Structures are given as structure tokens and as C-alpha cells.
Amino acid sequence: MMDVATYQLLDGRRCSEALKTRIAHEAAEVKAARGRAPHLAAVLVGDDGASRTYVEAKVKACEAVGFRSSLIRLSASTTEEELLALVDDLNRDAELDGFIVQLPLPKHIDPDRITLAIDPRKDVDGFHPVNIGRMVLGQKEGFLPATPRGVCELLTFYGIPTAGKHCVVVGRSNIVGTPMSILMSRNAEPGNCTVTIAHSRTRDLAAITRQADILIVAAGRPEMIGADMVKEGAVVVDVGIHRIEDRSRKSGFRLLGDVRFAEVAAKAAWITPVPGGVGPMTITSLLQNTLKAARG
Amino acid sequence: MMDVATYQLLDGRRCSEALKTRIAHEAAEVKAARGRAPHLAAVLVGDDGASRTYVEAKVKACEAVGFRSSLIRLSASTTEEELLALVDDLNRDAELDGFIVQLPLPKHIDPDRITLAIDPRKDVDGFHPVNIGRMVLGQKEGFLPATPRGVCELLTFYGIPTAGKHCVVVGRSNIVGTPMSILMSRNAEPGNCTVTIAHSRTRDLAAITRQADILIVAAGRPEMIGADMVKEGAVVVDVGIHRIEDRSRKSGFRLLGDVRFAEVAAKAAWITPVPGGVGPMTITSLLQNTLKAARG
């Protein structure tokens, strides 16, 4: 008898499409009510290829749901003061509901200083300390960081139970791992998990990850998680995305996650693909945050 | 052969005394430099006995290190608007470095609304979302919540290594458990732990707590942690404090923690007593935060 795959896909494209249908409907309502559509601006400093790809995908997503979008491109030699002046303009622009400054920034610009300068009410990336604090405190007014919010939406869409489960988060970055661990532990739906946060200083990582009913990997290391690190029947969410050179492909590269998909899928109950898992959810969350900003 | 106790005490009183000596020295420096001592105000609404005891202990601690202190007592019938007006006055009082509004507040006052109204630069309890967010982001400008900061200071004072250890935090409150889990996981000293946060929805809590190299209990349930839930050689920090009626004592009560001290001490390498463990550290952290506010 042959082995048959028993896993089910946590399909971020499918989930995104469903959510975007609703977002488009609500955007039309906002437009009808106040005479203009939700409006997101994205600021891109320099010409990093991956950053440009991400920003362009965000702009395209805005168009697909009937948002207005603005793409502001600045040269890599833009000074911190110039960028702060732009942020100040965007904060005061009454025609703009939210904006993002795409990271990473050139080394001569302090990203913390830029983030702090953004009006928290327009911080649809959810990176400002006041929005992070509101997330920790479970206050509804703020914006959740886009990727962790997207993972929550994906779990909800597929009806994955979380209460009482052991969730292991690998990675402690400010924009993914740490907020993810907070959201999964809080008294909410999804949430109510026992949460373990692991990172580069964790000893015997496999012994930790094998305890996970829900394993969320945001470590930024290609294919670091193998089948031996995953419990049978786990829900596996792979936040990683890496371009690996591959001359056998027309594009010259292929995309890998932090998880070895084929071998882990054979043990998992649910798993995200890369691409097409968390990636589309991040952009959809950004649209949801912008819609929330537009509703005031 | 008789068993001998091998544990060592994480003595919060001793650690506090050492830290307060330094705080008093620095307070004198501040006073010499700008002509007035650090000044903390505490607002107490209503006449809850435990709250009064805490507030009075804070005022007394201020005096001991040469701070100025103000105790503002309001009746239990104070309205939310009246309390907000007072907060506004305190925010603008140039003679005041920091202030706290003692929790819990009467039920007709929304504590979130009060906390949000406090100027983050005077929020020496570290409860404002912007200070919580700064803690998550590892930014140095803010104030850490007093109890988690106190636990960190205690671990540092006794030279407890934390990097790479598995820290289990029991309890997910906004003011202790959740910030504690964040501080222990971040890339700092103390910190760099693999951290598990457990709470009322956790299944098989004992299987989780037995993994802890460092066990921090802030669950608010008297003596819930027994020896069977603790690994041999663990470091055990008990944040709980409960008044239990005891007619055999002159005071009429005795104090218990969340940990069964005698039986857990027999297995632990280090353990906090209750009282005299975390309690004094919380007040000392408040003094440290006030000193930081006074230094600007």
C-alpha cells in the first residue's frame, strides 16, 4: 500500500481571496459614506529588489479591492531628516488613511526613529510602540502587526482550534515572532495557547518543537525545520521565505520556507505552502488595517 | 542521614537594601544638580485595605531613599472624569517626576482609560501602552513594569545565569506574566531564555512547569505549585502574595505565595520567600523608574 498524503493545506491565497472579497465590499461602503476610498501610501527608500517586489504587490492588492494607493519612491541617498519630513507630511495628509515605510531602510537611517515618528493612527504596519503595547494589553483600538495578524486570520479561516493547545513559535523578531507569541497566548480567539518562544539561543530546539500542537516558524533560516522536529498531526505555519538561486528555472531562483515542506507535510495535519501561505495573508492584513484606519 | 536543605534564598529584602543604597546616592546627586529631589506621587481611590498598605509602603520607601513623595487620597465615589482631571494636573505638574494610580480602581472607573491618560514620561508603573511597546521592542527610553523589572534585578543580583535556559512563566496578566515572558525571551541580560507562558487554559501544567530551569509563578492562586511540578535544581520565583486568615497569629492572618515553599525549597536550587521575595523588589523598581524619570 502506498502512503497517501493526509495533510491539508493552509492555503493563504484562497483565504486571502475570500477576505479580499469582503474588504472590497466594505471599501465600497466607506467610499459611499464619505466620498473617497480607503487610501494607503507606501514609501520605498532605495532600490532593493525584494523590497520593490513587496511594495508593488501591496499597491496591486490595494487596486484589487478598490483602495486608492500611492507609491512614494525615494533615492537610497535620502537623509533621515528628509524621510522624517515626509513622514510628518503623510501624518498630516487628511486624504491619507494609513501608510507604511518599507523595511529594511538604508543603514544611515534609524528605523526606530522613523517608526516612532509615524502617527499611531496611520501606522497600518502596526510597528509603533503604542500599537505593540495595545496588542499586549488586548486593547482593540490599535493595529496588529500584519504578518502575525495574517497567521491568526488563516487559522480562523480554516477553523483550527487553538485554546489549550501548545503553540511553539520559532523566532523572536519584533515584527513576527514576538507579537505572534503574544497573540497566541492572550485570552482571545484565536489564542489561549500555552506558548513557547524559541530562538537562536534555545538549546535542543527539536525537543521544544516536537511538543508543538501548532508550530509557527519565523526564524529566517531556509529549511531549518525537518520532520524529526515535528509532532505527528501538528499544524505547521511557515513564515519564512527565501530566494534560492536555481539555474534550472526560468526565473533563476526558487522560493523556500523555513520548513522542509515535503517531509514535514507527511507528518502534519495542516501546513502552509511557500509561496502561497503566509505571504498573501500579510498583504491582506495590511488591507484590513487600512480599512480599519479609514473607518476611523 | 538527615536531609539538609540545599537551596539558597533569593532574598528580595537584601537585594532591595543594596539597590536602595545606590538609589539614595543617585537621588542625592539629582537633588544637588537640579535643586530638588526625585518626586513620586501615588493616587489612592477608595479605602481598600491591601491597596492602602501597598501605597503606604511605596511612600515609606521614597522617604528612605531621600525622594519626595505625595499621597493623594480620593473617596471611593470619585468619578472617572474627576480622576482624569487629576491625572491631567499631575501630567502638567513640573515639580513631579512620576506618579502611579494604585490598582484596582472602583468598578465605575475604567482603568485602561486612566492608564492611557497618564503621560508616558511620568508612567513609572510602566503600564502605558507606549511603555509596554517599548519594552517589547527593546527600546531603552521607556519604563519597565515594576514587578517584572524587580524579578530581573533579583536574578541579576544573585548572578543567576539565564541565557539558553528554559523559563516557564505561569500567569499571563498584563502587569506581571505577559511582560515577564517578554523580558525573559529578549536578547538581553537577563534574558535569552526559551520562554513558555502557561495560564488557566494550559493543559497538563505540571508537564510544562517540570521543564523549567527558571520557574516564575504569577498565577494568583495560593500554593498551587507543589514539589511534583518542579524540576530538581530549578530557580523558583514566586510572585504570588495572599493573606490567609489565621487566628493563631496576632495579626489574624499569614501570607502565602503561589508556591508551597517548604516542599518546593527542598528541590529548588534557588527560591524566593513570601514575604520578602518579589514584594520588596516591586517597590524598589518603582524607585528606580522614578529616578530614571527624574534624570529625564
- What is the helix content of chain A? 25-40%
CATH architecture of the largest domain in chain A: 3-Layer(aba) Sandwich
- DSSP helix count of chain A? 10
Radius of gyration of chain A: 19 Å
- Mean pLDDT of chain A comes to 96
Assembly of the depicted chains: homodimer
Distance between the termini of chain A: 58 Å
Uncertain regions spanning at least 5 consecutive residues of chain A: none
Summarize the structure.
Chain A is α/β, with parallel strands linked by helices and 296 residues long. Chain A folds into 2 domains: 35-119, Rossmann fold, CATH 3.40.50.10860; 145-279, NAD(P)-binding Rossmann-like Domain (Rossmann fold, 3-Layer(aba) Sandwich), CATH 3.40.50.
Task: Give me the secondary-structure topology.
Two copies of one chain form a homodimer.
Chain A: E1 8-9, H1 12-34, E2 39-45, H2 49-64, E3 68-74, H3 80-92, E4 98-101, H4 111-117, H5 129-137, H6 146-157, E5 166-170, H7 177-185, E6 194-198, H8 205-209, E7 214-217, E8 235-238, E9 242-245, E10 253-256, H9 261-265, E11 270-271, H10 278-295
Parallel strand pairs in A: 1-11, 2-3, 2-4, 5-6, 5-7, 7-8, 8-11
Antiparallel strand pairs in A: 9-10
